[in-house]
Design goal:
Number of strands: 2
Order of helices and strands: HEHHHHHHHHHEHHHHHHHHHH
Radius of gyration: 23 Å
Number of helices: 20
Strand order of the largest sheet: 1-2
Strand content: under 5%
Helix content: over 70%
Length: about 500
Amino acid sequence: MSSKPNGTRSASETSPLLSHRSERSLENGDGGDENAQPRQLLELTKEDEENPRNWSSKRKYANVAIIASMAILSPLASSMFTPGITQIAEDLGSDADQVVAATSAFVVSLGIGPLILAPLSETFGRRMLYLTCFSIFALLQIPTALSPNLACLIICRTLAGFFGSVGIANGGGTISDMFLPSGRAGVFGWYLLGPVLGPTLGPLLGGFVVEFLGWRYIFWILTIVCGINTLSAFFFLKESYAPAVLAQRKKSLEKSSAARYYIEGEDTRPLRLKIWASVQRPVRILFTQPVVFTMATYQALLMGTMYSLYTRFQAIFQDDPYSFTPRDVGLVYLFPGSGFLIAVVFIVPRVDTVFNALTRRHGGIQKPEYRLPLANIGSVFIPLALFYLGWTLQYGLHWAICLASMPFFGIGVQAVFNCVQNYYIDSFEKYAASAIAAGAVFRSLVGGVMPLITPPLFDALGYGWGMSVLGFLAVLLAPAPMVFYYFGERLRKRFAIEL
């Protein structure tokens, strides 16, 4: 499943392999004509300066910084205006529950986008998708800030969610392009802070903006920040997808000489068929791989729970007995956010440690399942944190006592997300972006819908039993990482697919 360390890289170095013609036919020319001029194999060697895994650390981390910024800005935009829900409802002549739909629309689009954008990056390359989509995302903040009514706000937010998802869709694939499996998890952990820390920082920053400037300034600020990030990408973001790098080299070499080249695993079908096959790929992965489907369901529950809490914090803490201001409500999000940071510093680096130790123990054979053991930390912390939060709120205890479990919730979410995303990358390295997209779509769909479902649940059952329902669902899926650690390889082999 893993690439050869520091070795030669072809365009199709890992399984599953996409190949629609035999290599022999490509060597002999188009259509397998024996009389055609022979083609030479084009590949990235371990000495090749253009091999993304041979880039300098400075160049690699410049790429990581840009895509990590994209991955944090779009989720941040998803929740930044939640402290101003009441203000937006009054300004646009609607009610608070309808305004929540704008957040749900954004989050759902954030999940649908990777279904299309991730596989397209495996057809056209990463850089073009990043630049195009994030430019559109930045520009969409302008009409959002000027929205005259709720319908306009929801439409702009829906489109923004789709194009803003490019950082989430392709970030994991980009990191896989540049880093070897043995040292990938630590880097990926910092990148993965975006999808979980963004929704946490959003309300904190939004609370200050709403209180002092008004809700529309949220989107003017986002326009500026996203514009700066996009501009930096035009100057510093480099193409990292090996097949795209090789395709560009092939084009340049064939233009300057009579020689002809081929790339291993090269897809020579018409563009229309390549795009259609690419778009189908995440869906096929999601619904044909039991491990991916189950872990995507687990991530979806966690994302849905997180957004349900984030959209409910305002109602919980602005009402009696707490009576927080919008700015104070924003500070509440620091509690789960601190857990995310603790996990990245103390737990995520150990994912590589465990992976390498298990690899050595099993004779140097690397398996994706070696990424899963530390996910069990989340399996324990998450349900306990939800039970604790629900019942302390139910009895109206001091806000600090109620929120004491939220750092543990953050630690658990980050542990599960990091282990699972690394599992996807190691299982489908060439198509890492599609595999991550397969999980992201389900995760974001549930994350968008659950905030619309949970308010009636809390109203009917109270916070004690309402949070307990979410806790029991987490308990139901908690054994998944342990089960797949032992049986994942068997399932992967049984349900292997040709992509």
